[in-house]
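Re: the 530-residue chain
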Amino acid sequence: MNQGGGFIVPGEAPQTTIDFNEACIVLRPSIDNVAVCKMDLKAGVRIILKNDDILIKNLISKGQRFAINKIMKGETVVQYGYPFGISAGIKKGELIHSGNIRPIQDDLEGNFITEPPKTIYDERYLTKTFKGYKRANGQVGTRCYYLIVPTSQCASQIAVQTASLAQEKYNISVSYPNIDGFVAIPNTEGCGCASGLQINRFLRILNNFITHPNVGGVLIIDLGCEQTNYTALFSYVKNDSTSLVVPTDWLTIQEVGGTQKTIEKALNIIGQRLPEINNASRCECPIQHLLIGTECGASDSFSGITANPVIGNAVDKVIYGKGSAILSEVPEMIGAEKILMRRMRNHEIVLKFKKMMRWYRALAEKLNVDMSDNLVPENIKGGLVNSCIKSIGAIAKGGTTAIEDVVHYGERISKRGLNIMQGPGNDIESVTGIVASSANIICFSTGKGTVTGTAIVPAIKISSTTELFQKMPDDIDFDAGGLLSTLRSLSDFGDALLDLIISVASGKKTKSEINGQRQFQVWTAGKLSL
């Protein structure tokens, strides 16, 4: 098969020689049988690797994969230490493409539990601390926001106006330095829909934002007649075992007398609450109070090679310090289910995971949506030849430790360590759920460049390439692309990202915060987001 430039002519002299480490990268050298190109390689180039060399058989573009040894027909094709395809017979130095591998059989049958990785706490990380806000219920925040919560689309614009006017009226940077700002979370939910899953999911998200440790004070605004009005939401909040531990007030627009009277009363309430909220101050807290949410958006072929593994390495180290993390984006797990199940703590978690995956697949079938649409032509062109290799790169954000639990969208995390949250591929919907699940830091990888943030939690943007970091310096916080061009190890980059996480958790502003990127969008029940 002629793929991008064709095979070299037998006996033709190589055009040039290049050092292996300069030209390509292998993620698990002792296990992988493919490498990823750091640059375009022409047919005939000879790659020098210690006492061996590899003759490149056809044009291989940057980001694409090639075999570093002969892979016999029927053998597995391996990257990250995991198989992502079955060889149709691939020569050493040959491009890996959809024509010379076939998918691994995809099923959810069997137990799949081997011996999950042992969580080994490490004194190097147990002693690390950050400066956070301790709350009365034992939770720790990385920010202290005054949150204005509209309970429906009908109250959303008033909430936005109130937050903007409060920012103008109260000079918090001078008078209330322990408050990070005023944030509203406008939405399109709360009414005009059937009761049941959609309303319950929305109430869960609102409740978990209201009680989030990054929130120092809350003003809730409802219209009055929506399904998620005071009666519905207050009942939900009241039954929450964590209860409210910060000043919380409520206004009903229809009772107060309309838009202007509601805004005026809201500003007066806020002004009275600010001194009390400002009494909170940062103090030293062990990193066991960090809960890292992981996300990838606008990915490229190097996201799973640099940015995601770097996030995963930092996540491991947070967990070695008794911290926790969340891995989500169910469509990004298609083809990697068996890899994840083998890391799960027990059979009960495996069953919860299978139920989650089957639910998502059933919804896709009901809506006549092909889950493989998550793999777009740009992905394939860039070297992601099937959904399995894309998913293996995506789940690298979750590191290597045992998976302790699987939770619903926006459900609060209760088990220390790595958790999976049932969430969509849509960035903003996904991150909103992750924040509701109690994440207080987001590590967000990107290859093409994305500017979005989150409403109340700092999002650290990690670029997959140095080119992107240099192209969007006002939006990217950390360059993982250096992993391709330096001799520093993955662990070195993980340490550097952990240092940044601690700085951000202690108050350092991320680029998305500086740019005012504070997105909030609930994953509407019945919608399939790839």
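The CA atoms of residues 453 and 512 lie 5 Å apart.
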